[in-house]
Amino acid sequence: MATPIAIYGAGGFGREVLMLIQHINHARPDTWQPIGFFDDNVPSGTLVNKLPVLGGLSALNQYPAPLSVAMGVGWPMVRRKLVTAITNPVISFPVLIHPTVWLLPEQEVTLGEGCLICQGSILTVNSSLGNHVLLNLNCTVGHDSRIGDFCSLMPAVNIAGEVVLGEYVFAGTGAIVNNQLTVGSHAVLGAGAVVTKPVLGNTTVKGVPAR
Q1: CA pair distance 157, 139, nearest whole angstrom
Q2: What pLDDT, in 10s, does the model give residues 95-111?
Q3: Which single residue of 38, 118, 134, 154 could bond 173 by disulfide (Cβ 3.0 to 4.6 Å)?
Q4: Alpha helices, DSSP H only, in 28-138?
Q5: DSSP character for 2?
Q6: C-beta of residue 6 within 8 angstroms of C-beta of residue 94
């Protein structure tokens, strides 16, 4: 029997998360049963890609039955704020991995709760993702890299081997982090940035090389 699942966030990325769930179901029928969206900024009852908005945070915290929730929110701190505010004990946060992403036990990759790994992404060996990490389309994570809680990697981000990203890092589309570098917590890597030296926390860098 398919497991009921809802998406928090009915915007563009929330609809992409629905697509991720639909692709999983196409590859493995009846894995998930999408029931709708939760979103405080969209009126309850609104149809989004044929699924209803079921309410906002308060409705989710009063939901009466066990429910998996995927976070359709891209910005790390917003995602953390919402996850922290979800206090309903029947809510769980599954790991969702697109069928095109191959992860074998032999790779020894560790994934925290609520990770979303989208189409075309590649993780090699002995890497780890913390809780609620987002790898958008076509991201790569090299060997022995460590990605902290709530990091968001936008499409085509390339994390080389032995890289450490602190918590809440946001990497814009096409950003590259070279081998053996550390990026501090809350850092922002601009789209297309090429990181060639360590990045301090709470810093925004952009350009080639990133400054």
Answers
A1: 5
A2: 999 999 999 999 999 99
A3: 154
A4: 57-61, 76-85
A5: P
A6: no
Q: Looking up tokens 């919402």, which residue turns up? A: 82
Its pTM stands at 0.96
C-alpha–C-alpha distance, residues 106 and 80, integer Å: 31
d(CA 59, CA 34) in angstroms, rounded, equals 17
CA 103 from centroid of its chain's CA atoms:
16
By the 8 A CB rule, do 104 and 122 touch? no
Contacts of 120 (CB under 8 A, 6+ apart): 98, 100, 101, 137, 138
Q: How far apart, in whole angstroms, are the C-alpha atoms of residue 165 and residue 148?
A: 6
Per-residue pLDDT tens over the stretch 175-204? 999 999 999 999 999 999 999 999 999 999
What single letter denotes the amino acid at residue 5?
I
